[in-house]
Amino acid sequence: MASEYLEHKLALLPDMPGCYLMKNINGKIIYVGKAKNLKNRVRSYFKSSHEGKTAKLVSEIVDFETIVTSTDKEAFLLEITLIQKHRPYFNIKLKQGNGGYPYIKITNERDPQIKIVNSLSKDGAYYYGPYPNVYAADETVNFLQKVYPLRRCNGYQGRPCLYYHMGQCLGPCFRDVPKEEYDKQIKKIKSFLSGNVDSAKKLLTQRMQTAAEQMEYERAAEIRDQIKYIEITVEKQKIISNDNTPRDIFNYYMDKGWLSIQVFFIRQSRLMKREKRLFPIINDPDEEMVSFIAQFYQQKNQILPKEILVPSSLPTDVISNVVENVPVRTPQRGQKRDLLDMAGTNAKLVLEEKFRLLELDESKTTGAMNELTDAMGIAPGHRIEAFDHSHIQGADIVSAMVVFDDGQPNKNLYRKYKSKTVDHADEAASTREVIRRRYTRVLKEHGDMPDLILMDGGEIQMNAAKDVLVNELGLNIPVGGMVKNDHHQTADLLFGNADTPLHLDPKSQGFYLLQRIQDEVHRFAITFHRKVHTKNTLTSRLDAISGVGPKTRNKLLRKFGSLKKISDASEQDIRDLGISETVAKTIKFSLGKITKPDEAKE
């Protein structure tokens, strides 16, 4: 339901194309979208029911603004610019770079080299790749330098380099290598990298036979290994098209608010690389795909193909205009259509795998709960409530409770308690107090009782909890004690009247769940204690100022929140709270010297 303020803004929306920017309570842009009709699109967020990521987005929107454009295409281009500028949380965001896959480069120089690079540049060089296997790329370059050498030295030095003597350099280190000689070698390298390996194998076979005839058996074995390398790394890559056109293929699958995207990179007639992305999405999947593709080619060093293939539901003309007029097509039959369908099938499998893993995680956590109850010999259950105490040398004693349902934390049910126990060393008293307060209230409100209670501590805390539950409240809830070792790591679980702990398998799901619960309740207690201690320290400093009583102190805390901010405030800011001029001057004088970092943190 939109607020009255948003209702007024919605009524003023134009029936025109453009972009809209959703903002949260802090005025931060959290989502950017485009629309052919701003009025219909923006109103749909507040006039329809949603689920998943869209529902989360709508719950955080407190304001929006719009930018009208002349056409839908202009809106699309503007949307991409705004997403890149503001990086909104709810928009699809792409990582920069090419994923770390290497390319093989033949440099554009008088004396060219062949090398491995991690990015592409418009420098006139020849690039092949990307290669999904770094080792294979490195071995390919080493192989080519031996079979079709170019330059491996730093250039002219008046004498042949070591690589020249090894037959891996054409010799620009001591002579002027004719351009035709380089061109001949480069033609062979390009043919090899394009998949034509028969001539290279034939040449190597001849060299191997010659070496064997001359009884150079080590040399023959080395050449044999080079031939084997071609067979297992180069020829193994299946040729999937009949031309060498570099093309990228995009397809997707959408289910349960998630978009699964597959990108196939076809280079040298082979599938050289695949990328997969998963996003929870807000808009129509086709619109999100167009946005994804546009952002994809705006990444640094992302080389453009000669052709892009997409499913028929996407606007090929819009994508082509955005991606520097690269032809964008939807194949209807043949190998290209098969590749597009294969990308779609892979996208579906990846998303289904994600859902299966989520189900598996759920079964693991439920299974972990069952492992715990089985080890303790109690009935299977669903809810665990765990408690811990925290203090600093007896000051500001607090207790905290966390709740786990079927092995997952339920943070909505966490509770914090400021202890009234005077003696901080009396762990039993602190335990009795928090257990009494918690379950007296649950009984009074007819709330749900846990199936198991865990105390972060040993036998003292466990027995104190059982004493209150059984003897005061008449409750028969199993209670265990979580024990840590000398390294403050989860070690054992105490239960019942046994003198020895229940030794859970440290590799079991049950032990892992116990460890998570103990870490979580300790974290929650420590966090709460720091807040209480900081606030009490701040309060004591204010109480020490003449003329500042509880009412004045509370006004200052509510308005400024810290001593540093009170100190930085002007005298008039303080007086605006209804504080007299005399007291305001006293406060400014008393806090005027807060410059140390530790004081500022208060």
UniProtKB/TrEMBL annotation:
Origin superkingdom: Bacteria
Protein name per its UniProtKB record: Excinuclease ABC subunit UvrC
Native source organism of the sequence: Lentilactobacillus terminaliae
Lineage of source species: Bacteria, Bacillati, Bacillota, Bacilli, Lactobacillales
Underlying gene: uvrC
